[in-house]
Amino acid sequence: MKLLIVVYHELDLWNVPAWFIERLSQEFPQLQITQRTSYDGIEQDICDTEIMFTISLRPEQFAAARGLRWIHAPSAAVHHLLFPELVNSDVVVTNSREVHGPVVAEHVLALVFALAKKIPQAAVFQQKHIWGQEEIWNHGAHPREIAGATVGLIGVGSIGSRVAQMASALGMRVIAVREHVEKGRPEGVEAVFPPSALDEVLKQSDYVVLAAPLIAATNGLINADRLAMMKPEACLINVGRGAQVDEAALVEVLRTRRIAGVALDVFEREPLPADSPLWGVENLLITPHTAGLTEKLWHRHYDLFSDNLRRYLARQPLRFVVDKQKGY
Question: Which residue among 40, 82, 173, 210 has the highest number of C-beta atoms inside a 10 angstrom radius?
Answer without folding.
Answer: 210
